[in-house]
Amino acid sequence: MGKPERHPPGLYVLFFTEMWERFGFYSMLAMFTLYLQNSEQGLGWTKTEATRLYSIYLAAVYASPIVGGFIADRGLGFFRSVLIGGVVFMAGYFLLSVPGAWAVYGALALLVVGNGFFKPNVSAMVGHLYPEGSHLKDRAYNIFYMGINIGALLAPLVAAYMRDRFGYHAAFAVAGVGMIASVCILWGFRRYVLGAAAAPQAAAGSVTARAVDAVPDWKRVAALLVVFTIVIVFWMVFHQNGSTLTYWAKDNTDWSAVGLNPENEKDRDVLGIISNAINPFWVVTLSFPFVWFWRAMDRRGLELSTPAKMATGMALLGLSFFVLYFAARGGEQGLTEETRYDFRVSLGWLVLTYFLATVGELSLSPMGLSLVSKVAPTRLRGLMMGGWFVATAIGNSLTAIGVYWDQWWHSSFFALLGGMALVMSLVLFLLLRPLKKAMPGV
Questions:
Q1: Which of 82, 251, 301, 377 has the fewest C-beta atoms lying within 10 Å of its C-beta?
Q2: Which CATH number is 307's domain given?
Q3: pTM to 2 decimal places
Q4: Which residues contact 18 (CB under 8 A, 6 or more apart)?
Q5: Considering the chain, what percentage of its residues have pLDDT values greater than 70?
């Protein structure tokens, strides 16, 4: 019997590379809509204007990987693409620390380009660290995903502190410092990941790899496109965290249980930023238990297929928004059309919502990355990884539904989004059998 597979050192290099990149990304994102609305340091926009630009930016930043993945596949390579993306990211974050609308638009353009080169290719490199058919690949993406969320957990906490003590522009500059750390780690430990720039070989005797390879490329790509289409709704709902869920945390959540005062407008901005740490806190807390759980299920032959995990994740996200529906319904009791937003409910509702949404996220997002790595034809892997992020981009563009936040009752808003996620979960469950035929062994 051969030695059991172990995760290679390159996984941890990419873990920390991505961790610091996500620190920068989520530092910026936690503050962005609040900065746009701030009349003293920011642009003084309305909530609707801020939400609209947020959705456009997210759509663009998640669409850009299709181009970056294509360029990497056509000769630039994963490693060089990630380095280029990191440098462009730095420029974008530091430009965002300059006051003025022109700096905002210029910075957003740089961040979109940087993400296009960085995001799909660092994710593809993770999969290339493992031989085709390796059972470690799903768990590798869970570990990698935890790195993403350690950065995402630190980001709003540091951003809130910097915003409170030094203002928005200094806080944006810290995002650039995180990007410097990301690039330095990748370059300094490049010997561990350069091998991931080449296509992996099939694991000896791998039934999964042979089964997938036996399916025509067009059928595998078509199956992935079906999955991409369905998860658009997941990202539309999930990425309300940077807009409407931030507004909910700021305006409708009672933080007194943790000793924070929501009455002061400046403090309320900080509370909105801090709320963005709840989701990554749950990811960091739950990632290793998830890895251990699926490993134990795998040993018993009971591990769910990757598409089944994703369908379960979609269902849990839908349920999480129904938690907020009941919270909002309770707060709205006795209110009129004019006073329907004048309530606050326990912080526990938001914490529970993020718990369920995070379990759903862990069941879907890293599994989607793993699915692309396992199913996409090798010659199209960077492009198809970019396709996963395009689906995310379309979902993010649809976060613009948040412009109705101040027009609808909050309970109606949450019920609509939760219902859409549950419907898409059912669709994905119904499609499991044909998807398994196109993606055997996953």
A1: 301
A2: 1.20.1250.20
A3: 0.74
A4: 122, 144, 147, 148, 151, 182
A5: 92
